[in-house]
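Is it possible to get an amino acid sequence alongside its tokenized fold?
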Amino acid sequence: MHKFGSKLPLLLTFCLFTSFLPASGSVLCPAVAYEKFDSVSKHYGRDGSRGTDGRSGRDGRDGQSQIIFVDTSSVNLDLSGQDGEDGEDGRLGSQPFCNRQADNVHHDIYAPSGGTGGNGGRGGDGGSGGALTVHYTDLADLRKIFVRATPGEGGRGGRGGSGAVGCRCHRRSWEVETCQGTPGQSDYKCTKKRYRCYDGRSGSNGITGSNGSRGRLGTLSIINSNEPLAAENPTLKLPISDLTGKQFKLSKNKWHLRQGATSLLAPGSVIADEYREFAQRWEETFQLIWQEKQPITSFDKQAVNVSLIDSQQVEITFPEDLWVEGSTQSEANVTTYTVNHAIPQTDVTRLAVAEFAGAGENLNLKIVDLAAKSDVIQTQFQVKFRAQDRFGGFSNYRTEYAGEIPDGLVTRDHNRFILALGKLKIPDDALRPGVNVDIEVVATRSLGERSAKQTINWQNAIRSTR
């Protein structure tokens, strides 16, 4: 709304007063009409809405997969994948509502804009050709098999919908005179200002959808046998507690990858050039032996993955949050894994300072393993020893030693470590009573191939030994 200033002009004051008079005594006041027009919104009408997006096309179905036992008869197979559907076109943006443009308002105005077009739907992917598995006794018999395992083409993306045209102004500019003060008096002044109407914008066109991807050629697998292959069972995943006391059969079919599939089949066949040739079947028995002190029921929720891999070996994978040390033994197609130690990862880094005592060459830092696993886990220590005299406060420390603590200066008593800091190459002045010290110990804990670091910080003053 237009504002006149800090004081209402006399004309406006007079009009407000007369608006409360009876109808017979009222007067027509241009100022009141001016205020009514000025309250009109700077935007009029209603913008058009965005068009809806087109639906994506359905993916084409893969070609049928077949297993055949070839003989002297000719075979004609169509294992082609279907084409993907085209995406739908996006809908048109809707037209704006262009109602009456207000006249002589005291501001610029903007006509409604057209709606944006909807985006086109993505084309569906083409289906892949089917997989053909052929059992044979004479490789030459494959020349009697004609197969088309062509891939389906991807569907075309839908076109984006067109945007709607925005409204046009009926009157593009006008001039409005504004007066202040009392007519006939020296304070009465009038000014003129020109305003504009701006046409609404046309909505942008929607984006054309992407085309679907072409499918893949079908594949060929050949087996020199008239017997169907037994089902594979190359992996298993079970809680640790379910693995003990039992034997599990693992099996895997081994294949060789070859080139030249079409040269084996009838002329004109369409299929991927690379094919598989069955080599042999691997079978292995797996069993787990538990020798960890803790009962296996403590690890019920820990699942183990066991896999027969391409090297014909059994691979055992334990959860990331469980440290396991053990050994594998294979004999006569039986793989045995013996778990010697199993420690939750959270128990690996539970070291804490137990005592800081002594002075001089007898200064010791004692660290305790709260999880009591140090008879199994290997531990190495590094230390950064910083010192400040008693008058320096706990700031401006000076590093006196930084490096590994030799094994000969670390004593382990069950789950307690004694670090002989006083026997490190640290100046005597930094080891005397009353010196403030800041010690950072980094412990590297290891079990088998796993390791982790824990940092322990300790800040105190060396106490008198008296």
